[in-house]
Amino acid sequence: MRVFAALALAVLPSLHVAGNTVRGAHFAPRETVRVTILGPAPRTQRRIRTSATGTFTVQLPTYDPCNMSLTVLAAGARGDAAQLKLPQRACPPSP
């Protein structure tokens, strides 16, 4: 029973966008994370080390959210993983 309670309290790795930056949280401390950004050509891939609290930030490439979607994948060396999909926005036509 205690195992289930511990699993219920576990927090999974996550990715969030703020402006043109992706922030990763809840990864293992000081873990190497491979961040892959799919969408605008060419595909972008970076290796980042998380902080002591398991967070990191990565700049997004310049892209037009009205004309394409973007997917960010983050995979940690210790098995942590997270994915974020930014769908193409429905923007009004240019005048």
Task: Write up what this structure looks like.
There is one protein chain. The chain has 95 residues and is mainly beta. It is 8% helix and 42% strand. It has 1 helix and 7 strands, in the order αβββββββ. The strands form 2 sheets. The protein has a 4-stranded antiparallel sheet, with no helix packed on it. The protein has a 3-stranded antiparallel sheet with strand order 1-2-5, with no helix packed on it. A hairpin with a 4-residue loop joins β6 (70-76) and β7. The protein is elongated, with a radius of gyration of 16 Å. It starts with a helix and ends in a 9-residue tail after the last strand.
Largest sheet at a glance? 4 strands, antiparallel
Question: What's the gyration radius in Å?
Answer: 16 Å
Shape field? elongated
Spatial sequence of strands, sheet with the most strands: 4-3-6-7
Straight-line distance between termini = 62 Å
Low-confidence stretches: none
Could you state the oligomeric state of the chains shown? single chain
Q: Mean pLDDT, as a whole number? A: 87
Helices and strands, in N-to-C order?
HEEEEEEE
Structural class computed from helices and strand pairing: mainly beta
Task: Count helical runs.
Answer: 1
Q: Summarize the amount of helix as a percent range.
A: under 10%
Please report which band the strand proportion falls in: under 5%, 5-15%, 15-25%, 25-35%, 35-45% or over 45%. 35-45%
What is the tally of beta strands? Answer: 7
